[in-house]
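Postdoc handover notes: sequence design on the structure in folder B. Input C-alpha cells:
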C-alpha cells in the first residue's frame, strides 16, 4: 500500500511539473520597441536604444555577443532571465562587452532616458570556434596624441574597441585600417578627414550617430569643430 501511495505521489508531482508553463523565451532584438536598427552588415548589427525614464524594455533575447556604448549617465536594473536583478550605474561614454545567448529586461531606474548604442558581433561563433590571429600588438593601451588621447579598451571576438578624445584642433595622426571599422559619436563631431590618395573631406556626426567605414585606407583625423570631440571605434 505504501509503495502504491508513493508511486501515485511521484506520478502526481511529475504531472504537476509537466503542466507548469515554460518560462517566456523573450522577443527577438529586432522586435523590441526600444531597439532601433541603425546598421547591418556581415560584421555587425547596430541598434540605437532609448528607454524612457522609469520604463523597461520587453523581455528580449541576445543571440550574439555584443558591445554597448552608453550615451549619458544612467542607472539601470539588468534583469537576466533566471538570475537576480543587478543594478548598473553607467557613466556617459561607458563601453562594455557582454557575452550573448541570454534573455533580459533592461529597466531604467533614472529620471532621464537610458540611451545606448548596442553593437552585435555577428561573427562571434567563428571567433569562439577558432580565435582569429592577432591583428594588433596590444589589447589595452593609452596613447597620448597631439591634443588628445586614444584609449584602447579591449579586444573581443576579433574586434578592437577604442575611445578617442580630441581637443579643438587635436589630431589622430596618420594610421592605416586593414579592415573596416565602426565609429560611434559620443559628442557632436566635425572632422577633417585626410585620406591618402583621395580629396580631403569634412565629416559631421551628432552624438549617438554611427558610421561604417570600409577598410584598406590610410588617413589622418583632425577635430575642426568648436568643442571637444569624443567617439568610440570598433575595428575589425
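Designed sequence:
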Amino acid at each position: 500500500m505504501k509503495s502504491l501511495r508513493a508511486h501515485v505521489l511521484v506520478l502526481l508531482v511529475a504531472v504537476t511539473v509537466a503542466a507548469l508553463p515554460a518560462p517566456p523565451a523573450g522577443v527577438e532584438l529586432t522586435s523590441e520597441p526600444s531597439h532601433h536598427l541603425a546598421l547591418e552588415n556581415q560584421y555587425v548589427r547596430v541598434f540605437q536604444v532609448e528607454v524612457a525614464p522609469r520604463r523597461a524594455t520587453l523581455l528580449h533575447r541576445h543571440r550574439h555577443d555584443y558591445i554597448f556604448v552608453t550615451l549619458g549617465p544612467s542607472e539601470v536594473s539588468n534583469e537576466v532571465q533566471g538570475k537576480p536583478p543587478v543594478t548598473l550605474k553607467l557613466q556617459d561614454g561607458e563601453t562594455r562587452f557582454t557575452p550573448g545567448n541570454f534573455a533580459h529586461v533592461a529597466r531604467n531606474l533614472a529620471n532621464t532616458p537610458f540611451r545606448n548604442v548596442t553593437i552585435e558581433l555577428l561573427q562571434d561563433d567563428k571567433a569562439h570556434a577558432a580565435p582569429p590571429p592577432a591583428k594588433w600588438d596590444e589589447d589595452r593601451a593609452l596613447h597620448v596624441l597631439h591634443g588628445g588621447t586614444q584609449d584602447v579598451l579591449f579586444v573581443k571576438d576579433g574586434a578592437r574597441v577604442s575611445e578617442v578624445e580630441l581637443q579643438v584642433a587635436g589630431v589622430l595622426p596618420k594610421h592605416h585600417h586593414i579592415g573596416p571599422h565602426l565609429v560611434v559619436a559620443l559628442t557632436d563631431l566635425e572632422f577633417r578627414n585626410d585620406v591618402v590618395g583621395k580629396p580631403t573631406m569634412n565629416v559631421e556626426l551628432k552624438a549617438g550617430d554611427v558610421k561604417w567605414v570600409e577598410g584598406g585606407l590610410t588617413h589622418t583625423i583632425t577635430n575642426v569643430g568648436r568643442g571637444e570631440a569624443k567617439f568610440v571605434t570598433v575595428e575589425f
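Context for whoever picks this up: The chain is about 10% helix and 55% strand. Don't rerun without checking with the PI first.
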